[in-house]
Write a structure and sequence with these properties.
Number of domains: 2
Helix content: 40-55%
Shape: elongated
Protein name: Molybdate transport repressor
Order of helices and strands: EHHEEEEEHEEH
CATH class of the largest domain: Mainly Beta
CATH architecture of the largest domain: Roll
Radius of gyration: 21 Å
Organism: Campylobacter sputorum subsp. sputorum
Distance between the termini: 19 Å
Mean pLDDT: 87
CATH topology of the largest domain: PH-domain like
């Protein structure tokens, strides 16, 4: 099963950059000075990068029989279920009820593996960023079912 990255934030940023470009162009045409041209150009740069992210970004989470695979940009990493001790939802701050999808690993991962895919907050525990189309409750259910099948 493949779960793609959610692009709602990029669409919103693209819309706001288009609005910024139009406002900058209107201000420049109404002869309020070169600030309108600057705002227009900044908006166009934002539109370019948002469109690039929407069209060429292929980030996803794939759940296999023996683990899950995360692709982020040109980097990719496979996490095997045999290396995972526990998958669950953990409450980080009880006052604000902040919950995250938590993984407890049997082994420590190398330093270069830590920062691109999962957010490690100690040597063996990590969280999955909430950047995918499905909620982390649904992802947790899918991963936990596959984890139970594997074990």
């Amino acid at each position: 099963m493949i779960i793609k990255e959610d692009k709602k934030k990029v669409r919103n940023a693209l819309f706001m950059n288009i609005v910024l470009s139009v406002v900058g162009l209107v201000v420049f045409i109404l002869e309020y000075g070169n600030i309108g041209l600057f705002v227009f150009l900044v908006g166009l740069v934002g539109v370019f990068f948002c469109a690039k992210k929407m069209l060429f970004s292929n980030n996803f989470l794939r759940v296999d029989e023996d683990g899950f695979f995360i692709k982020n940009g040109k980097k990719e990493q496979k996490f095997n279920f045999k290396d995972i001790e526990k998958i669950g939802i953990k409450t980080i701050e009880k006052n604000k009820n902040i919950q995250v999808l938590n993984f407890v690993f049997n082994k420590n991962y190398k330093i270069e593996d830590k920062f691109s895919f999962l957010r490690f907050y100690n040597d063996k525990e990590a969280t999955l960023p909430n950047i995918y189309e499905k909620s982390f409750y649904e992802i947790e259910k899918i991963l936990r079912d596959k984890f139970r099948e594997f074990v």
